[in-house]
Amino acid sequence: MRILGIETSCDDTGIAIYDDNLGLLNNQLHNQAYSHSKYGGVVPEIAARKHLIHIVPLIKKALKESSCKFSDIDAIAYTAGPGLPGSLMIGAALGHSLAYALNIPIILVNHIEAHLLSFGIEKKNIFEIKKKFPFIGLIVSGGHTQLVHAKSSGEYEVIGKSKDDSVGEVIDKVSSFLGLGYPGGVILSKLAKKSNGKKKYVFPRPMTKSNSLDFSFSGLKTSVFTAISSRKYSYADISKYFQEAWIDTLVIKSERAMNRLNLFNLVVSGGVSSNDLLRSTLFQKVTELKGTVSFVNHNFCTDNAAMIAYVGLLRLKESLSFSKKIRVYPKWSI
Ligand code: KG4
Ligand code: ZN
Q1: pLDDT digits (tens, 9 = 90+) for 47-66
Q2: pLDDT 10s digits, 277-315
Q3: 158, 332, 110, 47: CA torsion to nearest 10
Q4: Whether complex ipTM tops 0.95
Q5: 205, 188: one domain
Q6: Based on the domain organization, do 35 and 156 belong to the same domain?
Q7: How many CA atoms lie within 13 A of 222 on its CB side?
Q8: What sign does the dihedral 226-228-229-231 (CA atoms) show?
Q9: Which of 42, 79, 171 gets mutated to test ligand 1 (max ligand atoms within 8 A of its CB)?
Q10: Which structural domain range is residue 43 located in?
């Protein structure tokens, strides 16, 4: 069985073809960062227009490179939410049109669930991830910062989330405030490596003193902006101290979630999880707690269609009920 996945939730146009026996056959991605960088963040209308331009050529390329024909595709999966409404609608319209023309099933995939389960993309058997449940998922992306109790495939409880900005959003805003471009994650983490700054706790670790598993990053953003404006620290030092602050915050909350649920099995996903210092710090903490931590392969941390096709295939194989209606859910919770 082969499934074609479509990802258009934000500013990445993704198309992937996934086979239930052979795994990922092809994974196409067009990143629009260059079109948004001068604005310091994603401009929704530009994002939708770029999806429109790139999506059909990417499908052609994916089919050609994997030597597939449309008749080899057994189902379509697309990101139905959460995301930017205009961007989601491009994927939805194309997905439903293809499914209608080819007379094959269409599966609406939740983008957050796709990030959460993306560590399974490269497993030999698509159901191998079932052994991983139950676990705690830390999803850190441009749009979301969430802690999820993943009880079984399709059964999730959000146990903590950001009350304001996501961590990725703040990283991108800080980079833009420094005039360093968008997206900021890789830029700031490289810059942080150049710092010899030894100061501790220059920036707050927001909401870590309360018992809540929720996050709040907007105060941290304001503190960083204030420090930049004061010109007291070099850009490299700002990057280092800021990185330490958001990483500490994520590690403290993840530890609290594991202790609260007495579940020491952590899975980390989303674009921000490609950060190597976050990975090593979480690894050290979870090892101290005698737990296990899994990270998604760097290739699949940021937005991609492989995770959409993969979760679509799981849904289809599990024969769980899924909606066939043409819908997008910009605020769809996991
Ligand atoms: O998952 P993703 O592609 O998008 C959403 O679904 O929102 O994540 C993009 C985010 C951006 O904010 C980007 O700056 C951040 O991931 N990011 C990183 C790193 N690489 C990407 N943040 C910190 N360190 C990195 N190495
Ligand atoms: Zn994402």
Answers
A1: 999 999 999 999 999 999 99
A2: 999 999 999 999 999 999 999 999 999 999 999 999 999
A3: -130
A4: yes
A5: yes
A6: no
A7: 6
A8: positive
A9: 171
A10: 2-122+300-318
